[in-house]
Structure formats: structure tokens, C-alpha cells
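Record pair follows.
FIRST:
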Amino acid sequence: MPRHSRAYRTNQKHWVEKFPHLLFVHDIFLNVRISKRANNWYISFKYDNEPTHTAKKRDVIGVDVGINTLATCSDGTPFANPKAYQQAKKRLTRYQRRVNKKKFGSKNRAKAVKRLAILHKKVAEIRADKLHQLTTWLAKNHSTIVIEDLNVSGMLKKRCDPATTSVAPGSAPRHHKLASAIADCGFYEFKRQLTYKCEWYGSELVIADRFYPSSQICSHCGHQQKMPLSVRTYECSACGFTADRDFNAAVNLENYVSQ
């Protein structure tokens, strides 16, 4: 500890420095938590605070989440998916192999484990940062936000049937790759962040019914037709309307509240 620094003493084992240049709005905290992730220590404070309602730029917006594009909004705004895990997958695999080759309990293994943990932390931070940007923008600028009720746990558990699905030797099953891509998007974290931020900024979060066919309905005339996942452009067989699949779904989610 620096000689002239001030600190919060949480117990006999932990001293956490309070840097003079940091401004603490509240002096009374309900809870203080200390945690360690990879090679960094973190301290978090819990306190009561009144919601801050912000001026809204738009009444209703629909948000369609996906894998290729993290979120497509009904006003045409897209949010790219950083695909943090996919970008770091080769390095993660390489670091994991190095850990497996080290002798258990050795200093070299501890160093390898630390390096792997740092990379996992970096991946999580990239994903969380993108989600925070998206959810903050939505909650601050829109009165009502409509999203799908995605069965994330069901999608993650989904696997292909070996009896009915052909898989090339040495390759991962198609649905296994899909589950990995879904986990990399952080759909559950997106919903969690959006829920509490809507309370913070005075917005309403509407979750459409899980079986609402937002991708199958024409946002122009209301006609419903089948839409395989491989088809990325919606072409209405009734009125001829054409639009990006995700944008069409986002507009349908916006219209969901007026039904």
C-alpha cells in the first residue's frame, strides 16, 4: 500500500485502496464485494439510487438479435457482433494445450493457467462492452423496447441427431457449432442488462411471445410464410415486399405492441 493513501478495510485480510482522485457519490454502501478475475482485483459497491429518466428520441423500437449481426433495430440501426470467442478460439485452444502439458502443481503450469485466464477475461470483457453499448443506447433513447423471448438454454443444449444428420469425420456437428455461436453472442446477458437499464432510465421492456413468428410475417402486408434459417432476404409471396430478414423481424416486433 502507498504510504499516504487512504483505504477501506473490509476485513483483516483485505485492504482496498481508495485513490484520492476517485469521486464516491455515496458514503454509505449496502454491500461491498471483492473479487479476483485473472490477474486483477475488483471491488464493487451496492447502494440505493433513484432512477434517472432520460428524454426519449423514439417511442417504440423492435430489436431482433442474431449471430451474424448482434442486433438489428426497426429504425434500421445495426449492431455488429464482435464474435469475441470466435476471434480468440485458436489462441484459447493453444493456451489450453499448454496448460494440459504442464506438470500439475508446478510454477510453469500456474503461469500457463494465468495466461489462459487473462485471455478468457479479455474475451468476456469485449462481449460485455458491446452489450453495454447496445443496451444503454436502447434504454436511454426509447420509451418502449420490444425483444423476442428466446429460449437460450434450449438452443445451447440442442444437438444434432447422429442417426439423421451426416457429420464429416473430424468436424463438429452443425448444431454444436450453432450453440457455440449463440453462447458467444451473450443473449441472456443482453436481456439481463436491458431489464435493469430500462428501470434505470424509465423505459418499458416488452418481451414478445416465444412463439410469435416475427421472421415469417411480412411487415408490409401481414402475410405469413415459411422462412428457413439459410434464407437471409424476406421476399413476400403475397405483395412482393423485399427486405433483409432481420430488419423485417425487427419491424414486426415493433408492431407487436400495437396488436
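SECOND:
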Amino acid sequence: MGDIMTKSTPFQLSRIYASGWRAGGNCTADNPVEIAAAGERLNPHLAEDERERWSQGFKDAALNHIAPSAKARK
């Protein structure tokens, strides 16, 4: 969406989070360390704020699909 030199708008960041959420919903990893590694590998963004927002969406969705005991280890 935005490039490295341009600050993303709150709306753009919300769409980036949603994109990460969609990707995280397909994540088959079942522990937080594997989820974080998969998210880092799959993250398509270069700008730090966009990478962070996408990663948060990915992690939130992936953790939503695993057992409560695994969520506690994050």
C-alpha cells in the first residue's frame, strides 16, 4: 500500500491488519513461536508500521485458532 517513505493512514493500516488476519487464518502452526516465524516469512510489507500492523493481524488470527493453553505461552 504505502511505500517506505510515506506514513500510512489509519484506514490503510486497518486494511493491512485485515490482510494479515486473512493470512493468519490459514496458518497451520500451533505454537506462538512457529506463528511468529510464519508471519515474519509471509509479511509482504517493507515499511515498519505496515509490517507491525500486518504481523499483529496475522498473529491475532492464528492464535484465535489454537487451544487456550497455547495462547497463554505467547
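COMMENT: The radius of gyration is 12 Å.
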